[in-house]
Amino acid sequence: MSRHDGVLGLLIHNEERDMQTIDVKRLNDQHPNGRIDLIDVRMPTEFRAVHAKSARSVPLEALEPREVMAGRNGSSNDPLYVICRSGNRSAQACEKFISAGYENVINVEGGTTAWEQAGLPVVRGKKAMPLMQQVQISAGFLVLLGVVLGYFVHPYFVGLSGFVGAGLMFAGFSGLCPMASLIAKMPWNQCGSVKSCSV
């Protein structure tokens, strides 16, 4: 990583992904009034549970870079900040923007977790089970199911456990988790309306 000129010269440039990042303290110092364009790419229910006060919900699974940029009311040249829980999903979102030709997008390091820990203003609402916890429960259940079926029904069912294990390894190496993407689309991870996810 090397320093480069960015927002007030305090951004960090990620050479591998050609992505700008900023930590929550610097972001708050630069915009103490909270007037920033900040999108939260977590699931709607995660956003409803707790989010940065200045953030708006744009779930990663439904993210269309051109639509987001077109709806910025003439502020397309201003930085667009992207946040999630810890920084991984927001990095994926930034890559989508960069691939679509939008360079002035900035990943918020540490995500909403770091934002909360820094004591910055948040909005709290109805809690929901975090996505990664849902993934852990689902993966554990499938591994256990494969072992039980392999023992009591047919040895080939052990392949289910192996398949899940391979999927988790792929997620660990690539940073992409197909199971998480699938679970994020489940009805219980959606809100009935935009309004119901704002509180």
From TrEMBL:
Residues 32-124 form the Rhodanese domain. This is Rhodanese-like protein. It comes from the Bacteria. Keywords: Membrane, Transmembrane, Transmembrane helix. It comes from Rhodopirellula sallentina SM41. The chain crosses the membrane at residues 137-157, 163-184. InterPro entries: Rhodanese-like_dom, Rhodanese-like_dom_sf, Thiosulfate_ST/Rhodanese-like, YgaP-like_TM. It holds the Pfam family YgaP-like_TM.
